[in-house]
Write a structure and sequence with these properties.
The protein has eight helices and eleven strands. The strands form three sheets. Strands 1-11-10-9-2-8-3 form a seven-stranded mixed beta sheet. The protein is globular and about 45 Å long. 34% of the residues are buried.
Length: 210
């Protein structure tokens, strides 16, 4: 696949411009976007850039990170602190994401989204208030493994790193998670299934497929 060099700011602008004309595929009043990638690729940074680019264009948006929907430590770490299978299949509360994020933004929803549910530092509920996303607004959900859950995304963006770049940019204390990303690539092929591919090996010089 041919990729073109681009700056992060320009990438945020181009994605925002694409979203202005994108109609929700389920007939709802909200557009749902995935910013999918390993933590080392910093998909949340791109989500924030897109959100800001939408704001200056007069389009409301809400950035939500899956790290706010982790399961309690008693469930995440049931099989140890470095269990790859648990990290891949059991760390993120996908049921809560459906209930608190996607259902309110689906057909017949009221637009009231819970931006986060669980604080992994305190291992307690965040008790964050609900946020109302106006009709016509855009959900920007960022995190890893997003494309394997059949979430109703209208646009999916995958930030890809080569295995070498992923290892270099992942802190040593978190490298036990790397087999989970290899499995994700094999089982889901996010680079082949995402609508937009962004190569982020060099954090200063991204490239994308336009």
């Amino acid at each position: 696949m041919r990729l073109q060099a681009i700056t992060w700011d320009r990438l945020g602008d181009r994605l925002a411009e694409r979203l202005l004309d994108l109609e929700p595929t389920d007939g709802s009043a909200w557009t749902c976007v995935a910013l999918d990638g390993a933590p080392a690729a910093h998909p949340g940074d791109l989500a924030e850039r897109v959100g800001e680019a939408l704001r200056v264009r007069g389009r409301p948006s809400l950035v939500v990170g899956t790290e706010g929907f982790l399961r309690p430590a008693s469930l995440r770490l049931e099989y140890g602190h470095q269990d790859t299978e648990s990290y891949y299949n059991g760390w993120y509360d996908t049921g809560a994401l459906w209930r608190e994020v996607f259902d309110p933004l689906g057909p017949g929803g009221d637009g009231r989204v819970l931006p986060d549910l669980w604080d992994p530092v305190t291992d307690r509920a965040t008790r964050s208030p609900y946020v109302s996303l106006p009709p016509g607004g855009v959900l920007l959900l960022h995190g890893p493994f997003l494309l394997r859950h059949w979430f109703p995304f209208d646009l999916s963006v995958h930030l890809v790193l080569t295995p070498g770049a992923l290892r270099r940019r992942t802190p040593e204390s978190e490298r036990w998670t790397l087999p989970a990303f290899e499995r994700y690539d094999e089982e889901t092929d996010p680079s082949g299934t995402a609508d937009v591919l962004v190569r982020a090996d060099d954090p200063r010089h991204p490239a994308w497929n336009g």
